Amino acid sequence: MDTEIRPIKDPPAEGTPHIQVDPSPIDFGIVTSGERSSQIATLSSLGDATLNVTAMQIGSGRETFTLLAPIIGSFEPDSFAEITVTYTSDGSETTGELQILSNDPSIPYLTVPLLAGSEVIIDTGDSGEVDPPLSQPVAVCSVDPGEILAIHESADWIGNSSYDTDGSIVDYSWSLYSAPAGATSTMPGGTANRRGFTPDVAGEYVGELVVTDNDGLVSEPCYATLAATAGDGLWVEAFWTNSGDDMDLHLLDDGGSLTTDSDCYFANCTWSSLNWGGAGTTDDPILDLDDIPGTGPENINIDSPARGTYTVYVHDYPGSSYVGRNDVTVNVYLAGRLIWTDTRNINSEGCYEPFVEVNVPGGSTTSLTGTCR
Questions:
Q1: How many CB atoms lie under 10 A from the CB of residue 319?
Q2: In the predicted model, is pLDDT for residue 162 greater than 80?
Q3: What are the start-end ranges of the H helices in the chain?
Q4: Cβ(69)–Cβ(178) under 8 Å?
Q5: Are 45 and 10 contacting, i.e. CB atoms less than 8 angstroms apart?
Q6: CA-to-CA distance for 168 and 163, rounded, in angstroms?
């Protein structure tokens, strides 16, 4: 699996942003095998221009290190944020890295080493009886598989290996600890295992499991991370802030026009593709998700887009119950990589707001501004 993140933003025209993460490396020391430890690092914006952090993930070491809540966004000079990284020990010496993508021109691709020491077992020579094990239950969790295609594939949250040394587990409490912005997928019902979770937005989902034993004792939380990918082609997501305001995502073919068959939208493209590009269907668009009463997401994707320039619009469909200002976010992925994102305020019923032009296969983008059509 490719765990690399790549720069996608140029530095600002005026001033120079600068990123710093402290401490670096993040050293967990020695943690007993099977136990979990968390460390907090501080991300600081130290330049004289706004620092834009566009991606954050665990690179190598994902088996034992977990980033609970990626910090993505804009940071004004002299501001900071806290990053929490959790380490689950297997008793061995372990290394990994935290990867951060920003518009700092000197270190656009920052790697912070993650370190953990080897557990040392000391033989005291005492052959006497040992203390009985603690009675607190232990939550053991995972997600299978650990990486899937958003919308089209499902994963299972697994907790049936949780245990209690002097009793039994009577309750398995699963919840979503974190999810990408705009996601509306919820934790499936069930007990120890929660099957059939389908993410509706690309990004990282962190599930949290807490178990309770027959004595009423509650475990420490266990966390499992699911990576929902955007596929290998062109992938466009849209979601918004206020419900009751039907926002419709439109993707125009190279040289296309709105509300024609060169425009993929709800009227002609819902779960059936239009005939774009060459022979076959892999270069044809499909509207996988269409939302009317909620806050999205909506999704259009093309598995193997033909060469050309595609244009993204959002239509504030008239007649919906909510008619005020509404922040709409559009994310564009190409070959599984986020290449463009922006949030715009739309407050005009019937308006077609142009967002971005995307060049394929190069991946260059042009933000569109102007009067709503």
A1: 8
A2: yes
A3: none
A4: yes
A5: no
A6: 7
pLDDT score for 9: 44
Q: What share of the chain is helix, strand, coil (3-state, %, to 5)?
A: 0, 45, 55
pLDDT, average across residues 259-287: 92
- CA distances 219 to 138, 170, 177, 290, 372, Å, are 5, 12, 16, 40, 53
Share of the chain above pLDDT 70, in %: 92
Return the DSSP state at 119: P
Q: Are strands 109-116 and 80-88 parallel, antiparallel or unpaired?
A: unpaired
Measured CA to CA, the distance from residue 225 to residue 208 in angstroms comes to 9
Burial state string for 340-353 with b = 16 or more CB within 10 A and e = fewer than 16 = bbbebebeeeebbb
Phi first, then psi: what are they for 22, rounded to 5°?
-135, 130
Show the tokens assigned to 117: 């020491």
Sign of CA dihedral 111, 67, 165, 137: positive
Alpha-carbon distance of 26 to 61, in angstroms, equals: 13
Q: Are strands 222-229 and 147-149 parallel, antiparallel or unpaired?
A: parallel
Q: Let me know: does 1 contact 63? Beta carbons within 8 Å.
A: no
Q: What is the pTM of this model?
A: 0.64
Burial of 221 (0-12, 13-18, 19+ CB in 10 A): middle
Contact call for residues 353 and 311 (beta carbons, < 8 A): no
Report d(CA 313, CA 146) in Å as an integer: 33
DSSP 305: P
Residues 248 and 268: beta-carbon distance below 8 Å? no
- Taking only the tens place, the pLDDT of each residue in 167-190 is 899 999 999 999 999 999 999 999
Peptide bond just before 145 cis, omega within 30 deg: yes
Q: Residue 344 pLDDT > 90, yes or no? A: yes
- Residue 321 tokens read as 């119950």
- For the chain, what is the total number of helices (H) and then of strands (E)? 0, 26
pLDDT in tens, 125-153: 555 555 555 578 999 999 999 999 999 99
Buried b (16+ CB within 10 A) or exposed e, 250-278: bbbbbebeeeeeebbbbeebeeebbebbe
